Amino acid sequence: MMTKPKVIWLQGASCNGNSHAFFNYPYLKTLLQAFDFLYHPLLPSPLPLASIVNDYSITCDILIFEGSVDAKFNRAGLSSDTLLQRFDGRAKTIIAAGTCASFGGIFSENDQNTSGILYRHEQPLNKPLISQSDVINLPGCPVHPHNLATILLALKANQPIPLDTMHRPKEIYAHTVHQGCSRSEYFEWKVDAKSFGHKEGCLFYEQGCRAPMTHGNCNLVLWNEVNSKPRAGIPCFGCTDPKFPNFSFFHTPKNMSIPAEIPLDVSKRAYLTISGIAKTFSIPRLKKRLLDD
Amino acid sequence: MIKRLIEQIEGEAILTFETKEERITDVTIDFPHFRGIESILQGRPARDALVISPRVCGICSHSHLMASVRALEDLLHHHGVHIALSDKAKTIREITLYCELIQNHLKWFYLTLAPKLAKLTQTEPPAYLAMHRAVTQITGVIATFAGQWPHTSYAIPGGIASDPTPLEVMQADTLLCSVIDFFEERMIQESLESILALTHDEKLFTLGGDLPDMLRLLEREGLDKLGQSYGRFIVLGSHSLFSPAKLSTEISHSVDFNHVTEKTTPRYGQETFAKNVRFNGEFYETGPLARALVRQEPLIHQMFQSNRDTISTRITARVYEIALLLHACRQRIASLDLNEPSYIEPECSWQTLSGQGVGIVEAPRGSLIHTITLEHGTIQASQIITPTQWNLGNATPQEPGVAQKAMLGLSDTEVAEFVFRTFDICSICTTH
Hints:
The complex is a heterodimer of chains A (293) and B (432).
Chain A: E1 6-11, H1 17-23, H2 28-34, E2 36-39, H3 49-54, E3 62-66, E4 74-75, E5 78-79, H4 80-85, E6 93-97, H5 99-103, E7 119-120, E8 123-124, E9 134-138, H6 145-156, H7 170-173, H8 184-188, H9 229-232, E10 254-255, E11 258-259, H10 268-280, H11 284-287
Parallel strand pairs in A: 1-2, 1-3, 3-6, 6-9
Antiparallel strand pairs in A: 4-5, 7-8, 10-11
Chain B: E1 2-9, E2 11-20, E3 23-30, H1 37-41, H2 49-52, H3 61-78, H4 87-121, H5 129-146, E4 155-156, E5 159-160, H6 166-187, H7 192-196, H8 201-206, H9 210-220, E6 233-235, E7 245-247, E8 251-252, E9 260-263, E10 276-279, H10 288-294, H11 298-307, H12 311-335, E11 355-363, E12 366-375, E13 378-385, H13 387-392, H14 402-407, H15 413-422, H16 427-431
Helix pairs in contact in B: 4-5, 4-12, 4-15, 5-6, 6-12, 11-12
């Protein structure tokens, strides 16, 4: 019988959003049975937080860390950076759950010294907080529960998890959020959403959608099993991006009426050529409301 | 002096008890986790509040979104910009907010309260995995309309950004029905209609389910009549189910927001960042018990008459509110006219707006207030007053805050911690 990997979930400066997102995972029971969860901030746990903080002999196979790392921020009386570093080399793998733990996120905005585990925004830390354990970054504000759950299960199965240069699993973050969007046909034919509150039209041209510039799989693995923000009509805010939240929200910045940022790795010339051609065609099906006759 | 670290709440809190002759004479509530969301908002464009503010808190992100969108709409209104919300947008905002309250109350009962009571009484807590399924379904209702939960930004000045179709609404209704099934099978074994028609707790005690079981256990252990505080209540948010009112000796519907004051008590300034909040200089309890009492819900009114604001009344009020909200959500889903617009664009230029707006909503734990000040479209200042500041703010032993008062005089600090938990603790919101 396979032994159950021990898991501890700790937090730095956080909103608990990753913990609550994780609680939405539909197969939580199966997941909890596959692991020995020593501590989770929401779930009844065999160990109190004070034991983990004070008892140096307690360790785990996988540490999940949520929130940005802030030396001024204590958990059970111990600063979050010291608490995290105690597991360096003692936990085999450390998962940064969410954008704060990966890149600093929203809570690093107030203080230059607050960061993710290996990065502050896109800059690697001069002194990374973890140097001996493997670190897997799972950015997202919050982290998608399916991504976290499947990575945990892959670790348990000793499955290789290829990472990109920013320590993100390629299988998740090689995609852009744009892939799988129910509005992608409108993007192809350059039909913009006329306004918020419509099922029709692409949110990239006016409403500030960052899906084509953002690494993630929100439109491939749906949120709460039913939806995604862009599908519903809310622009992607780039919440998995190292630079989040420093973007223009709800509004697309433009230069000479061309979006200032264009899809990842697409040259401006290619974008302008394709857009120019697509715009010369008017496709009646994409111009009308979906449910109109 | 006895210090207790309170965890498995939202964040953590430290209770420091002073005792004399085996009675608690003073208790300090410390919340160590300040993150400074208000200053993160400074210097950003107005609508960034809709993306940043939800990140105050993972369990009530939606309530923070709603408070921010109301603050921006209030600001536009003062600027002479007409805000026309369609009934559809208003109703969908209500449905998703109510669903957030429901998920909160479910988690509070099974994760915050029940395990602690089980430990205290050396009994088995009710299993939480059935509740987990109900939570995934109720957050699925929110996501159907709002894209995802937590941390969506679908409510925008002028309406909502989504455009649900009839089949999507049907899907949301099915999820809601499944949560109602859970509630009727597990929490109170009776139909929603009959639960909402209850007028006396005698009948509640005869029913099966995890709430009646908890109430019987509390009674058996002699814990049911603990935790009484001032018996003063306040509701500040306006919704289809709730309207501003306060109750001290009688219910008054004239509540002037200008009488709300927020301040730090210097005595506790060392560790805590929580500021206490008063109305007209006095402490008031906010949240589900306050909402049920000013709505004059017969069951909760009777329990308050019999047991005052003890923990049995406070716990019942919160579970009862789940029934009330589930029922309201179904009615509202049935009433939606999807032909109405989701969003009517306000005629304004965001870059030029200056002024101040206040947005107040009823969040899971009570009244939540966001105040946003803009100068030429940029956020100059933001003030957030959270429900937990009303209930959990520190004051002096002579004039304790609401939760402090509820714990004074108890002999056992473990029991005091349970009383504290009945208020539904969010350390994260309190300090923000």
